Amino acid sequence: MDTADSPTKTQTSDDENYNLLCQAHEQFNNREYDRCLELLQQLETKGESSGLILRHNRAVVKYYKGGCKQHQQLLQELEQLSDGKTAPGASGVPVVGLSLKHAGGSAITVARYNKAVIYYHRHMYGTALERLAPLVSRLEALEKHMAALVATLQLQLLLATNQLNRAEAFLDYLQYKLNLVASAPSPNNSTNTNPNTNPDEAASGATAAAAAAVAAAAAAAAAATSTLAAAATSTTTPSVLDATVARVAGESGGHLQLLQLLTLVLNRKPVVIIEDGTPQSAELRALQYYIMKDFQMAAKQLMRINSDCTQAGTVTPQLSTCIANNMGVIHLRVRHYAIAAKFFQNALRFDQQLADNLRQSSLQTMSSARSCEIMYNLGIAMLHLRRPKEAFQCFLVPIKQYHSNPRLWFRMAESCIMEHETKLRGEERQSLEGVMNSSVSKPYAAQSSAVPEPTLEFAALCLRSALTLALQYRASFHMAASPEEALEQKDAAAQQLWSQQQDNNFCNPSKPVSLESLENMLAAIYAAHSFVSLRLGDHVTALEMARHLLQSERLSDAHKLLGHMYAGEALIMMDKATEAREYLEPTFVSTLNALDLETRDWQLKSLDAAQNVVRYNLAVALALQNDFQAAKNLLATLSHPIVSSKALILHRYVELKMSAASALN
Predict the structure, then answer these.
(1) Tens of pLDDT, residues 46-97
(2) CA distance linking residue 355 with residue 462, whole number of Å
(3) H or E segment to which residue 287 belongs
(4) Is pLDDT above 50 for 315?
(5) Orientation angle between helical segments 628-635 and 607-624, nearest 10 degrees
(6) Which residues contact 339 (CB under 8 A, 6 or more apart)?
(7) Which of 272, 458, 489, 617 is spaced 20 to 30 Å from 580 by Cα?
(8) Which long-range contacts does 601-608 make (Cβ < 8 Å, 24+ apart)?
């Protein structure tokens, strides 16, 4: 009689299990999930050795049966598999059955990949990178189709987190080490297609490159949901997998090629985008135009995509959201702020169709929701339109997700300052009586600085956060190698891992920042912090921030002027008029660049205006030192309308003081 260990019985059992596996695979592809679950249950009843694989596939089939919406339940099942927890009666050691022969990895490998897919679609990119790291570290050991899936997701995550240098290095690793992608089409060497653009120029922190690449990345992200099923079914049947693996590998190769082009475009590499009639290639072309600062062609390309998809009947809320947002970014760059705000509002309306009920949405729908990025862009447009209340409310949405972005904290502070100044201008329409008393800081009602309202108290909190983050990032800033050094390092590329590449992606979701951009941001934070401290009566902090501002590297002439003014005012308020005169000497104004003043969005549009403002403040300091004659002589030189009314009042005050002094003598 045959025993359980006899070859005859073993062969018969394997054949039966194999037939059930084939049927389960077929039923899954036909979306007959109930029948597929029954077959998997039969396999488990028959004592199929690959218990972890069956548990994994059963969880995935149930997920698809529920309309791909119960991702939290699926995630819990996958976490249990990864933790090595087995079902009652199963062995504590994962058993590799015959279904793993062509599967590209164990059930735990696929479970880890699927977990990373879920976290990616939930916008938890950092967690997804952590979950995927064990698979990426042994990418060469995986079979080619599984390696392609993991590489595709890893590249998407690097781009989603703005790790552009690391993404490019990882792409080289895939191309030359693993041979997973072919060389991208590049222009003729004699043709100069590398635009002479400033890689750190941003549309006022409006997530420029990241927003323009939303559609292309979203199109590639669609592979992650489909590969969830493909990876699950790939652990089910060995021989039927031949066709499935080829199909999945082909899809992954196509998405890798798309991500390769996107990576090269974002890194400003010369590459030819061959338009094949698909929206993805057209979107990449639009992004390339945008980076080359050909905004008109970028807008035309986006409108053509919208027109073609409308005629073909393939317009989706995701596509409409992407086009509207990107059109808004383009108009933001050319300073058409009202039009940009309208496009962003349209993008939010389209996005709302996706985000109405995310708890009951599919993963693909969840990953397509971009309300945080769009609200960030809309807030920037509202700031330029001088609508600070609306801008502040917009920034409250992305700050919950991007709380480590110093630029976003600074934008919130700008909204608070602008709202306060708007109210103050309304009060200044009243009579200017008691000018000398008005120099004393206006008392503010007691209010917690933690309250998210557009007040100066909250602005101070935002600026402290922005300053702390910016100083931390400057201390850890990575300087890119020069072209000569990069050429020398390329010879040792085999010894240098792609993971060792660094990116200064401190301002997600905006693109990485340069050192110059970071220094400019710090200068702006110092200036705003000094101004807010003056308004709140914290003169010591105001003086400290002004001095830090004047010591900053790459200081613009406009910020230099503000540093002198704020330091002088703070010292005057601290009754140190003698020290204040050192900062208010008009001689430094002649060294300023008039163009830097004229191109700013403020009242000082000329060197003459700046000279008059500085001289007026110096006259105030002289009057406080009772040097009335010098103050009167200085006031006589003031002629600019920006100070004329205040100079007239100060002149009358000086004359009264001089008359009183003469009467006493």
Answers:
(1) 665 567 778 888 888 888 888 888 888 888 888 887 665 444 433 332 222 2
(2) 29
(3) helix 279-291
(4) yes
(5) 160
(6) 328, 331
(7) 458
(8) 602/558, 603/642, 604/558, 604/561, 604/642, 608/640
The answer to whether 535 and 424 have CB atoms below 8 angstroms apart is no
d(CA 127, CA 112): 12
Long-range contact set of residues 438-441: C-beta below 8 Å, sequence gap at least 24: 439/572, 439/573, 439/620, 440/573, 441/534, 441/535, 441/536, 441/537, 441/573
Give the Cα separation of 388 and 459 in Å (integer). Answer: 12
Q: In whole angstroms, what is the distance from residue 421 CA to residue 438 CA?
A: 15
Residue with tokens 């590639």: 220
Helix axes 51-65, 107-121, angle to 10 degrees: 30
As to burial, measured by CB atoms within 10 angstroms (0-12 exposed, 13-18 middle, 19+ buried), residue 67 is exposed
pLDDT at residue 217 above 50?
Answer: no
Summarize pLDDT for 614-663 with one digit per residue, the tens. 999 999 998 888 888 998 898 888 888 888 888 899 989 988 988 887 87
User: What are 44's two structure tokens?
Assistant: 């488990």
Joined tokens for residue 337? 């702020």
Closest alpha carbon to 272 in 180, 198, 188, 166: 188
> Residue 52 and residue 530: Cα distance in Å, rounded?
61
Show Cβ contacts of residue 13 under 8 Å, excluding neighbours closer than 6 positions.
Answer: 46
Cα radius of gyration (the chain): 32
Q: How far is CA 66 from CA 41, 62, 70, in A?
A: 18, 6, 7
Taking only the tens place, the pLDDT of each residue in 282-307 is 899 999 999 999 999 999 999 999 99
Q: What is the pLDDT of residues 14-33, one digit of tens each?
A: 677 778 888 888 888 888 88
DSSP state at residue 176 = I
